[in-house]
Specification:
The complex is a heterotrimer.
Chain A: H1 10-26, E1 56-62, H2 72-77, E2 82-88, H3 91-99, E3 106-110, H4 114-119, E4 123-124, H5 139-144, E5 146-147, E6 150-151, E7 153-166, E8 189-192, H6 195-206, H7 215-228, E9 232-236, H8 239-248, E10 254-258, H9 259-268, E11 273-275, E12 283-292, H10 298-308, H11 311-321, E13 324-325, H12 328-332, H13 337-343, E14 355-356, H14 362-377
Parallel strand pairs in A: 1-2, 1-3, 8-9, 8-10, 12-14
Antiparallel strand pairs in A: 3-12, 4-12, 5-6, 7-10, 7-11, 7-12, 7-13
Helix pairs in contact in A: 6-14, 7-14, 8-9, 9-13
Chain B: H1 4-34, H2 52-58, H3 61-96, H4 100-108, H5 115-126, H6 131-139, H7 153-176, H8 181-189, H9 194-222, H10 226-231, H11 239-249, H12 253-277
Helix pairs in contact in B: 1-12, 2-12, 3-4, 3-7, 3-9, 7-9, 8-9, 11-12
Chain C: H1 23-45, H2 62-67, H3 71-104, H4 110-118, H5 125-138, H6 145-169, H7 173-181, H8 186-214, H9 218-222, H10 230-237, H11 244-272
Helix pairs in contact in C: 1-11, 3-4, 3-6, 3-8, 3-10, 6-8, 7-8
The chains are: A alpha/beta, B mainly alpha, C mainly alpha.
Amino acid sequence: MPARIPHVPAWFIAFASAALVLAACQNQGGTSGSPGASAPASAGATESAAANEPNELTVLEWSGYEAPDFWTDFKTASPDTAVDFEFGISDADILSLMEGGSAADIFHFYTGWQQFYVDEGLVQEIDTSKLTNWDKVPDAFKAMGQVNGKQYYLPWDWGFTSILYNTSKVSGTIDTWNALFNQSYAGHISMWDDGPAAVTVSSYIHNYDETKITADQLAAIEAEWKLQKPLNLHYWTGEYTDFCPEVQSGDIWVAYAWQGCYATVLYDQSQPVAYANPKEGRNSWVGLYGISANTESYDLALKFLDAKLAALTCGNAVTLFYYGCANQEVMNAIEDPVLIQAFGIDDPSILESTNFTPPVTQKQRDDWTAMWARVKAE
Amino acid sequence: MLGRRGSLWFLAVPPYLWLIALFLMPLGVVAAISLLPGSGRIDFSGGWPSLNQYQQVLETPAYLRRLGISVGMAFVIAASATILAYPIAYFLAFRARQRATIFLVLLLVPFASSYLLRVMAWKLLLGREGAINWVLTSVGLVKEPVGLLVYSQAAVVITLVYVWIPFAALPIYAALQRVDRSHLEAAADLGAGPWTRFGRITIPLSLPGVLATFFMVFIPTVGEYVTPSLVGGIDGLMYGNLIQDFFTRAGNWPLGSAMAVLMLLAVLILVTLALRLVDLRRVAP
Amino acid sequence: MSAGSEVRRPSSAVGVGRTRVPLGLAYALMIVFLYLPIGVLFVFSFSTNKNLRFPIQGYTIDWYAQIFQNEQLLTAARNSLVVGFLAATVATGLGLAAGIAVVRFRFAGRGLLLALAGAPLVVPFIMLAVALFLLFNLLDVPRSLVTIAAGHSVIALPYAALILLSRLIGLDPALEDAAMDLGASYPTTLRRIVIPLLGPSLLSAWLTCFIVSFDEVALAVFLAGRDQTFPVFLYGQLRFAQTLPVMIAMAVLLMVGTVALTLVAFAIRSRSE
């Protein structure tokens, strides 16, 4: 006996679908982030920066950062400004979206991609004289945001990359990046799944100039990472999805890692861990904000970026996400011993011995990612 | 009053238009991109068209090996999923019958939660501190917890078969509904035993569903990348991971597109060959 | 009853007769394996644990409470439901149309339509995502939940088509002929005879399409405007350690919600019979 379905009139289905489509389209106006109202711009806003600028901002952000905690100072100072967010999930995404004509006024990406936006005229210089929090940013971070001597980007979040290791499984202290190639940890190593990162590690070990890797050097790098491959448990991609859980369970003993998992494991004490200070120096990556060259809200964007560096907003990145913040006053004011240890705040020279990720050209990116694809595909 | 032939327009034209606009045209865009000489900003003025990207792919044996491995894995996964799904579909069609819908829905509902989280939960169960190891160590079979049972090529195959079975059951179930009770009753009355009835009537009648299932699983699995990245470790990598990396990590769309086009061609050729082996006319009216 | 037949009248054991293959067991095992990880997530959603590790430290319903305070999370979930509904409905409708056309009619582009309907299966989602992104860019189509739904409907269509085709092939055309002989127009025949007969297959197709859309990330990122879908949101949140428990609670809630909705739909259906 064939099952019967209720006789739903066709007009009902058509009506319901049309209603849904309308609902979906409506949402383009106001979304998460706008202060309660669904209208994109409120007439007669009193807090707008310039009289002839629209009182709204669009920020191209990484999913997670649209939470009000990460722009709370701006929200307090300019409650009438509507802030909308567009999202990307990787640096390549963000660049594609900007190249594709995104209407975002501000965009956020990480070191290694600085010059692409400059080359394609997608970003304009930041007038640092208008930023009240600029003097709290260490010079090393300011330099990260410069291309050809011009300040195009504002550094905001940052972190270290180093070797995270389990002290109960590793004898002695790890003080070199070469530990990732150590046979005695076979099956318990994990490298981040990223070609440029592999090139970076090799360049630290062999003292290559990261900005001028030759074809011979790249071939040597490819060969050594192919040899290293069987030593890994896996190449990790998501810090808290397939990396930190394995560190906590004791399956990973030695890994290329950011400080977030280190802080997490220090907090929950699941394993005794240490975060290396390799003789070649740690690596640091920095999150940068740029103002779109096509924005109509330049001054408003500047206000937004300035507010990003404010104590509360910047501090939230530290306490909520275990990321570093470019406002050095905020970093110095940290009292949590776990975070102090994670960021090496009690070691004032740490930033000096740290290697910051340099910008990478398109050709280098292509060569290095192809190299890594060959290593993985072997 | 709309006649039968006239209705054909309303039936055939909308899917055609939709697919041409939202599938063929984008595919054309991808093919065009794959003919770009270099990566970086999409710019068709300099040196287009060029076979650079295809050359790069074809000159890297490792990529082609991975494509071959992926095809092999996809075949095993599709065959296993189809075979294992058959009893489920059979259950739905013949044992559950009136209640089949609710049983079916129960099968599909877990997929309405996040796949990523479910895999993480499985890793917990199978991991060092998980349930399996707890059983093994308390029973005394092993002294130390066994290291992660995941992160291998086998893990990818098992996971994908597991994930595909509920969906694989659907076309088979749909086809099994065509098996008329009266055929089977007549056969039984004529003295055919249950397995004979199954082999001579049920299986042939359900063949369209079985074939549909096999291809439905095989085709997308060749380009699969999510599961290999979650449980594949270093040797469970599939061709789709390479494509994914070129698109989202490297921002190298032309190379990724070329790799995808090659995969498309490979699958097309394989499917065409397979369909030659199976005479569709015997299966459809 | 034919002479000499010892076979039980195959009324409840059709197709298997005396050999009772434990099909129910196969189904039950599948259900157990499917719901085991869900069970784990369910347990953890009520634990005070900050991460997915045993032992359970304590119990709380805080995470569920936090869901309802998290505006972005709720919006993302709602967006996913809207997109899923649209994509599934369009894909199922088009799959049905294409299926009927291919199975019941002979026309010039028949084979091509079948191939086209199945073709999106071959293409990796990321590739279609990039392609549609560029296409929409070129045509100045603003990205929104509708564009995501459009993309999802394309990738879901093959599933709908395959499921419905399997069922349609077995459908006796005599039923439609009879209806038309009695004076019904073809559209009425489709509406009153064919579609009801397809019943559970339509539901399977729709549900499959919904699920394909619901957990999809690549297209959802590239074709999104201002609105995130839940998997994109989840992906972003999982970059950070502290957000895991709330996300687990949400995933469980969404699943439970889906079950509840389908049970309600089923109840309504039974009542209307």
